[in-house]
Amino acid sequence: MMPGQYADLKNKHAFITGGGSGIGATMVEAFLEQGCQVTFVDNQADTAQSLLDRLPPEHAQRCHFKPCDVTQVEQLQELITEAAAQHNGLHILINNAASDSRHRLQELTPQQWDLLQSVNLRPHFFTAQAALPWLKQKGGSIINMGSNSALLGLTGYPAYVAAKSAIIGLSKTLARELGTDAIRVNCLLPGWVMTDRQKNLWATEEAVNDCLEQQAIKSTISEQDVAAAALFLASDASRMISGQSLIVDGGRA
Fold first, then answer.
1. Which residues contact 12 (CB under 8 A, 6 or more apart)?
2. Are residues 47 and 18 in contact, defined by beta-carbon separation less than 8 angstroms?
3. Among 149, 71, 163, 158, which residue's Cα sits nearest to residue 107?
4. What tens-digit pLDDT sequence spans the chain (253 residues)?
5. Which of 127, 106, 103 has its CA nearest to residue 115?
6. What's the alpha-carbon Rg for the chain, to the nearest Å?
7. 38 phi and psi, to 5 degrees?
8. 60-80 b/e with 16+ CB inside 10 Å = b?
9. Domain of life of the organism in this record (predicted)?
10. Per 3-state DSSP, what percentage of the chain is helix, strand, and coil (rounded to 5)?
11. Which residues are catalytic?
12. Domain assignments of the chain as residue spans, ordered by start
């Protein structure tokens, strides 16, 4: 159970990219818990099915999975349009899908750079483009997932950090452009969230302790911490918040 309940989210429709695992899966569960209809896309059908299998029946009937590679923009836009038409319009768009694969300046090729931007940045623009006709009908909330790495200038994945930095600027400009249609656009900047992927690949005891030393709050960040912030930004509780970056990193940045 999430710590906050938002009655205005009930029966609204949320579309979430990268919802099959990690932060995205927790967001899917959090919005279902609030009574939302949720459509999520992911390129890993097996992990998405694992999520669907563990949902209670009352949540599963409001959850809709579509396999999709977010680098395939036309398919992604078509799925947004189809989902909105089928499920009472569209009220919340969350651009969560990302790739934080480690890479070095000297080794990254132009093709690899383009692929990383196609995953980490380009969808945030084109999902908004597809969602706009639906969000304009009653207003809504776009939440773009950034990263505190853009504020800290973390090393080890410069193309990723560049994309996350651009997401902040994109969110601010879309907030101004879409505000007259009562559409809010905000950026959610998590710190180092202890997902299974992070634990399996990079979260050594030494690395985690080093991160905690830099945080004001000496606890690791969970997927639930980020999902709780997303619920707030999606709800009417934040109705006058737009063009902002909400940092969830325990006071590190």
1. 36, 37, 88, 91, 92, 234
2. no
3. 158
4. 788 899 999 999 999 999 999 999 999 999 999 999 999 999 999 999 999 999 999 999 999 999 999 999 999 999 999 999 999 899 999 999 999 999 999 999 999 999 999 999 999 999 999 999 999 999 999 999 999 999 999 999 999 999 999 999 999 999 999 999 999 999 999 999 999 999 999 999 999 999 999 999 999 999 999 999 999 999 999 999 999 999 999 999 9
5. 103
6. 17
7. -130, 125
8. eebbbbbebebbebeebbebb
9. Bacteria
10. 50, 15, 35
11. 160
12. 9-193+223-246
Residue 4's alpha-carbon distances to 20, 173, 233, in angstroms, are: 23, 29, 12
**Could you tell me which residues are beta bridge partners of residue 184?**
141
Q: Using an 8 Å Cβ cutoff, are 151 and 247 in contact?
A: yes
How many degrees, rounded to 5, is the angle at CA 226 between CA 232 and CA 165? 100
Count of residues in the chain: 253
